């Protein structure tokens, strides 16, 4: 186990531990090499060289030992050149011998991070590929290169040789997903019950699966084996901090620090990781931050030269409120910081110290310029704080950036560091205090609380936002988690819980929450909100005296600066006056309102008391008084709209007066006919079912929204939904460029391309390029569509990468439709230049390569995609398609089977698998996949199509038609399903009905329908219909897409007319035509007819060559084998003819008696009498109305068999 342990700790960069583990078995060259490398990284080079010295003379590992010694010398502070020269000379001498073990040289390159060289050496050990150590090393290299699937294969191969090998067991676990790895790691733990490493990895996997409790249990097991285990200590401390148990975590953190100092004193990165993760998850708890100072000092002791260390330590000072120290360290770091990270943190500190100054603004503007990708969350937050852009957009981008960074890791320390809950909290606080802002805030805080449920401030802010938007259920859960699991003494949680229940009208629960809060923390009485809420509870209990007493106490309360906010003060006086009114103490009520007006005079909450008084009047039944009070609020007041809306509700709900309801909104419009108020009025009309008045109001809103083109577009969209297209067009025209673009799209939908082009006349090309191109595409002018996009790209100057990418993609589509494949390929490559690594573009390019038969380029691109994402389904599908096009049926079947094993309802892959199975003459292999797909979705059009395809190839034509019919209406499968139905039942009446269902979208599809129509005409055998079909076929032979099908039809037409020579001349054009999957069926039929014509002309060899081409691409072609039998029979090679006829007879599933006759005849002629008799019996059993075979073959074969 020495090699396993040493290697494990070396990989973790625990070099002290690795060196200690390696000292126990210094005779193993592998252990010695790992120990030597570890010592080098600990600056103990002389020890490293001493470790290697015994192996310099051992032939099997001398080369590796010498290389490692040179590596060690090169890492000395003062390099001994003479020693290196001697070692290099010795290396040359040793390299001449071939008796060394290449494994150790490969191990050296692996340890030196030279993976390519290590792999090349291991590849040469052909005879030893089965060795466990070789397979394991291959696995670790591929795991280091993040090629987990390849690594897993190597580890599994090693386990086949030695199922208990620790290296292979661990490698297998680490190469799997967290879920699969967790399932496997248990067997590893069982096999090594006294080992701590399996438990360490199990902890990490449990954490990756967010199984915190299980991970803690495992950490306790690990500590039972090794009391100073660093991983277990860190996990326990992290769990405590995550849960908000900060004081409990302190002794564990102390222990962790002392163990790190004892076991890995020089590993500054281990100390720093503790600082990074705990500082971001502890909610700025000063006790935890103070403990982290120890780790920061340890990291600085050996890593002060590292920029990242300085930044993290400065960040720790900032979180602890030591802004001066943070400023000093960030200034020092910014001297060498090319990435500007320290300058970003310095700007944050300056903003906290000095507020918004010119210097801070300049720093942030500089950082904005340097942050080209706009992916620095701290910079985005600074810009939002300084209002340098759309605040919400900047904050949203900052959040998505953090999530994106974190998603690159499994859940664990790296995930938490990159997610940075502390930063997310700061971001959430910047969202505006509006419903929209609260929803954004909730999204961010949910992420924080899910990750760190112990962050009380995050939970409280989340609950406040949830209450603000009326999401009471989630707010209840949030607050319950705080009280039950985090801090049962937190007063704010109880106050918010009481507020929530009051808003829900659950006064008993509100009262209970306040009582629980008091019993858990007596200091809650110091908060004025406690008394206000108590007063509201008493009010609803009917005890107005206690209500008054509590509210008065809340208004007068304020020790230590704890006072009601202006908003709460307005509510308090409104409730106080309401209580007096309920006690009929009108003078006192008036006094309350007067005092409230005095305190809130000039503030935005002055009208709150008036509105509250009106509400109380309404509750007491004094609706008119309530309306009068609300009417007193002037239109200039910020609460005016709220007052009018409340009046409207009184009219509608209390007085059931729809006219009065709408009149309140009309007053809003009369006082301020702005678009927003008009929209409110329009909505009101819609509510009381007055659509005509609503539309008129929306029209006025648009007329009054000069310059607000977004409103014009909004109203136009409403009218489009009402099918009032002409009015919608009018509004679109007055809404600027955006409206013109939407208008053009509408007119395209209405099939008015000319008007769409007119609508776009004054819109800049950069905005209208795509829609204008669609207009030209609609009228069939693809060249003009392509040129429009070219002009747009030239105009944009390629500065907008996203726009340039999109333009190139669409230009590629148009170029491909124009059959200019080279140009299309070039456009896709240019798109990839603007957006490197965009998989959607790579997929499109790969499809184009396949279309133009550039299979090598297609395969190379697919392999590149799969190297990044081994589950990329389009790439996997194309790799399988390539195998099919290369007529490698076995490989194609394997690829399609693999795709369907992962996703049985991948209909495209299923259809392809059926095609492969048919061409490989193994159609029965497709049945299990159909059954599996059917168990998932029995009614999917894709399943109907695939089932139809299977039955068509099986010869069950009626069943196939029924299945295809089930897919007819589907946008994806319908067109091809109808096409196949026409091919099967090609009588004119049925076919004409089916043809009418096909709705061509472009000229190419129209030509496809014309081709099908012409085949239907041929099937009638009517001379005039055949002549019409020949005319259409002749026209279509000039069309590249339909050339093969048209040539087939032309040949068939000439044969029907008795012009075999002309048919042969036409079909000979395709004798050497390249086979493609898209035209395979038509091409194979051409070849079969041509072969038959060659046979008739006595050109047996030419016919045979063509038939072999058919069989190469389609092993299930019964007709091809039949014609080969005819050729053999003409050559009097009856044995060979019988073999071909037997193959054909089996492929057509014994349904053709004449083919059975030919088979029996050739068996008779080749003196295989028993086979001939058996064939006759089979034919007569299946086709009793075919007696000819008995007389000609059976009766002749029987006596010869007896003789």
From TrEMBL:
Biological processes annotated in GO: intraciliary retrograde transport; protein localization to cilium
Top-level lineage group: Eukaryota
Residues of the Tetratricopeptide repeat protein 21A/21B fourth ARM domain: 712-832
Tetratricopeptide repeat protein 21A/21B second ARM domain residues: 253-505
Domain Tetratricopeptide repeat protein 21A/21B N-terminal ARM repeat intervals: 7-216
Residues annotated as domain Tetratricopeptide repeat protein 21A/21B C-terminal ARM: 990-1197
Keywords on record: Coiled coil, Repeat, TPR repeat
Domain Tetratricopeptide repeat protein 21A/21B fifth ARM repeats: 873-986
InterPro entries (UniProt xref): ARM_TT21_2nd, ARM_TT21_4th, ARM_TT21_5th, ARM_TT21_C, ARM_TT21_N, TPR-like_helical_dom_sf, TPR_rpt, TTC21A/TTC21B
UniProt GO cellular component terms: cilium; intraciliary transport particle A
Signal peptide residue numbers: none
Pfam short name (any one): ARM_TT21_2nd
Coiled-coil stretches: 576-606
Matches recorded under PANTHER family: STI2 PROTEIN-RELATED, TETRATRICOPEPTIDE REPEAT PROTEIN 21 HOMOLOG
Record family assignment: Belongs to the TTC21 family.
Protein's UniProt name: Tetratricopeptide repeat protein 21B
């Amino acid at each position: 186990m020495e090699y396993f342990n040493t290697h494990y700790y070396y990989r973790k960069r625990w070099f002290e531990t690795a060196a200690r583990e390696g000292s126990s078995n210094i005779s193993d060259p592998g252990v010695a090499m790992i120990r030597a490398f570890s010592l080098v990284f600990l600056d103990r080079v002389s020890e490293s060289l001493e470790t290697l010295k015994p192996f310099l003379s051992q032939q099997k590992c001398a080369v590796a030992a010498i290389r490692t010694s040179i590596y060690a010398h090169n890492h000395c502070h003062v390099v001994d050149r003479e020693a290196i020269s001697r070692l290099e000379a010795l290396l040359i001498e040793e390299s001449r011998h071939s008796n060394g073990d290449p494994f150790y040289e490969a191990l050296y390159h692996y340890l030196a991070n030279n993976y390519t060289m290590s792999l090349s050496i291991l590849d040469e050990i052909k005879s030893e590929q089965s060795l466990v150590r070789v397979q394991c090393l291959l696995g670790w290299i591929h795991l280091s290169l993040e090629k987990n699937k390849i690594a897993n294969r190597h580890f599994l191969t090693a386990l086949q040789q030695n199922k208990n090998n620790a290296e292979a067991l661990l490698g297998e676990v680490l190469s799997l997903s967290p879920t699969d790895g967790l399932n496997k790691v248990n067997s590893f733990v069982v096999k090594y019950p006294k080992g701590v490493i399996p438990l360490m990895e199990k902890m990490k996997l449990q954490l990756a699966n967010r199984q915190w409790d299980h991970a803690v249990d495992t950490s306790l097991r690990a500590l039972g084996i090794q009391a100073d285990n660093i991983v277990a200590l860190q996990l326990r401390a992290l769990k405590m901090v995550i849960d908000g148990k900060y004081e409990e975590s302190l002794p564990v953190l102390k222990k962790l620090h002392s163990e790190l100092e004892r076991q890995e004193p020089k590993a500054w990165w281990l100390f720093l990781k503790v600082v990074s993760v705990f500082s971001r998850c502890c909610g700025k708890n000063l006790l935890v931050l103070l403990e982290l100072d120890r780790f920061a000092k340890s990291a600085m002791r050996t890593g002060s030269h590292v920029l990242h260390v300085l930044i993290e330590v400065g960040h720790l000072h900032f979180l602890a409120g030591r802004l001066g120290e943070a400023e000093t360290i960030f200034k020092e770091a910014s001297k060498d910081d090319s990435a500007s990270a320290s300058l970003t943190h310095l700007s944050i500190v300056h903003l906290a110290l000095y507020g918004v100054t010119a210097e801070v603004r300049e720093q942030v503007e500089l950082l904005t310029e340097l942050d080209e990708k706009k992916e620095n969350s701290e910079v985005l937050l600074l810009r939002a704080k300084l209002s340098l852009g759309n605040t919400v957009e900047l904050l949203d981008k900052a959040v998505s950036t953090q999530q994106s960074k974190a998603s690159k890791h499994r859940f664990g320390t790296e995930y938490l560091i990159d997610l940075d809950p502390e930063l997310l909290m700061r971001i959430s606080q910047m969202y505006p205090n509006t419903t929209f802002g609260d929803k954004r805030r909730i999204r961010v805080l949910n992420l924080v609380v899910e990750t760190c449920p112990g962050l009380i401030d995050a939970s409280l802010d989340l609950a406040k936002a949830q209450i603000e938007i009326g999401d009471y259920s989630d707010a209840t859960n949030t607050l319950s988690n705080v009280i039950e699991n985090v801090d049962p003494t937190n007063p704010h949680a109880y106050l918010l819980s009481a507020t929530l229940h009051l808003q829900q009208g659950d006064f008993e629960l509100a009262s209970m929450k306040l009582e629980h809060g008091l019993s858990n923390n007596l200091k809650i009485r110091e908060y004025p909100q406690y008394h206000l809420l108590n007063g509201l509870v008493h009010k609803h209990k009917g005890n107005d005296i206690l209500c008054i007493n509590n509210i008065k106490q809340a208004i007068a309360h304020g020790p230590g600066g704890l006072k009601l906010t202006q908003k709460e003060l307005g509510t308090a006086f409104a409730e106080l006056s309401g209580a007096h009114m309920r006690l009929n103490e009108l003078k006192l009520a008036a006094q309350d309102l007067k005092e409230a007006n005095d305190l809130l005079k000039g503030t935005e909450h002055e009208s709150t008391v008036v509105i509250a008084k009106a509400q109380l009047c309404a509750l007491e039944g004094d609706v008119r008084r309530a309306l009068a009070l609300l009417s007193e609020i002037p239109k200039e007041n910020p609460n005016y709209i709220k007052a009018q809306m409340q009046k409207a509700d009184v009219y509608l709900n209390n007085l059931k007066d729809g006219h009065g309801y709408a009149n309140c909104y009309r007053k809003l419009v009369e006082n301020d006919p702005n678009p927003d108020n008009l929209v409110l009025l329009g909505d009101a009309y819609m509510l009381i079912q007055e659509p005509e008045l609503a539309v008129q109001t929306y029209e006025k809103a648009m007329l009054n929204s000069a310059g607000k083109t977004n409103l014009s577009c909004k109203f136009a969209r409403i009218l489009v939904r009402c099918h009032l297209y002409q009015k919608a067009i009018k509004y679109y025209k007055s809404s600027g460029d955006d409206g013109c673009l939407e208008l053009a799209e509408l007119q395209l939908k209405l099939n008015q391309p000319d008007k769409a082009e007119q609508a776009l006349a004054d819109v800049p090309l950069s905005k209208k390029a795509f829609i204008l191109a669609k207009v030209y595409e609609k009228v069939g002018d693809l060249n003009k569509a392509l040129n429009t996009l070219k002009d747009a790209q030239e105009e944009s100057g390629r500065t907008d990468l996203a726009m340039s990418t999109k333009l190139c993609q669409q230009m590629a589509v148009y170029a491909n439709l124009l059959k200019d494949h080279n140009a299309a390929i070039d456009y896709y490559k240019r798109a990839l230049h603007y957006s490197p690594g965009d998989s959607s573009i790579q997929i499109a390019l790969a499809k184009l390569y396949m279309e133009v038969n550039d299979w090598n380029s297609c395969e190379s691109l697919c392999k590149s995609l799969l190297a990044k994402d081994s589950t990329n389904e389009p790439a996997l599908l194309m790799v399988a398609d390539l195998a099919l096009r290369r007529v490698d049926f076995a490989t194609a079947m394997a690829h399609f089977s693999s795709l369907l094993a992962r996703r049985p309802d991948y209909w495209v892959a299923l259809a392809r698998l059926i095609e492969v199975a048919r061409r490989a003459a193994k159609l029965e292999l497709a049945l299990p996949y159909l059954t599996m797909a059917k168990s998932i979705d029995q009614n999917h059009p894709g399943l109907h199509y695939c089932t139809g395809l299977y039955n068509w190839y099986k010869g069950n034509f009626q069943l196939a038609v029924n299945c295809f019919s089930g897919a007819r209406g589907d946008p994806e499968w319908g067109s091809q399903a109808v096409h196949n139905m026409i091919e099967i039942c090609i009588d004119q009446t049925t076919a004409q009905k089916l043809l009418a269902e096909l709705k061509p979208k472009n000229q190419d599809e129209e030509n496809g329908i014309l081709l099908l129509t012409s085949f239907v005409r041929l099937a009638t055998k009517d001379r005039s219909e055949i002549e019409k079909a020949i005319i259409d076929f002749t026209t279509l032979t000039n069309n590249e897409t339909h050339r093969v099908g048209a040539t087939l039809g032309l040949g068939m037409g000439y044969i029907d007319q008795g012009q075999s020579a002309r048919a042969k001349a036409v079909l000979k054009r395709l004798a050497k035509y390249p086979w493609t999957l898209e035209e395979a069926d038509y091409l194979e039929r051409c070849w079969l007819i041509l072969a038959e014509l060659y046979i008739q002309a006595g050109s047996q060899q030419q016919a045979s060559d063509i038939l072999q081409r058919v069989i190469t691409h389609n092993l299930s072609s019964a007709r091809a084998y039949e014609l080969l039998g005819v050729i053999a029979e003409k050559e009097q090679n009856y044995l060979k003819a019988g073999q071909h006829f037997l193959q054909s007879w089996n492929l057509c599933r014994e349904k053709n008696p004449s083919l059975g006759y030919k088979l029996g005849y050739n068996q008779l002629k080749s003196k295989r009498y028993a086979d001939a008799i058996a064939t006759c019996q089979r034919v007569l059993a299946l086709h009793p109305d075919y007696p000819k075979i008995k007389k000609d073959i059976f009766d002749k074969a029987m006596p010869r068999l007896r003789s």
